[in-house]
């Protein structure tokens, strides 16, 4: 069986990203997928992009990654865009919408937020039908078929649920977790590209990292909205709601 590490929502937090990649390497996992939002919110989007490009086999586009190539009047987006530079912006524009593959006889689809949009937010406590709809597809997806297993990022809140024989999971966030003050990622283990039924395991991993170093880097960068970002790192509470 093969292991795949799935990470998401780095948001320019290098201490967290480094800690997670070190943990992945120590486990001997060589295949790493990223579910987007490499940039934004944090201070080092440029470095995060370089590290992800080097270490991840595939990265999909997140909403913040998409914003970098949009004409938006948003201070943090403008600040990040200037930090990233044209070469990295060009790389962001090439990121695919989803990652789709067979594993141990199950069709797996991974994306940032939903199979329909980079900007549709679905929480674990949302309406049942809304959560169930994540197994569907749109013209943005590679294959026009229902998924057996769906993994996503965006909400910074790791969970797993079983809905009508299907498995829905969120990998949480590496750089801006909003459930626990530790970086989060998921390991899938099974027969990669295998079309026959076989064992398939999923492990949620929490990795402690130097939060105060991440805070120091945000302060030194003199970035916009540093105060709410720092508060989120220290408390794991979303700036817009105490419920993530």
From TrEMBL:
Residues 3-189 form the Calcineurin-like phosphoesterase domain. Pfam families: Metallophos_2. InterPro entries: Ap4A_hydrolase (IPR050126), Calcineurin-like_PHP_lpxH (IPR024654), Metallo-depent_PP-like (IPR029052), Pesterase_MJ0912 (IPR011152). PANTHER family: BLL5683 PROTEIN (PTHR42850:SF2), METALLOPHOSPHOESTERASE (PTHR42850). Belongs to the metallophosphoesterase superfamily. YfcE family. This is Metallophosphatase family protein. It comes from Paenibacillus odorifer.
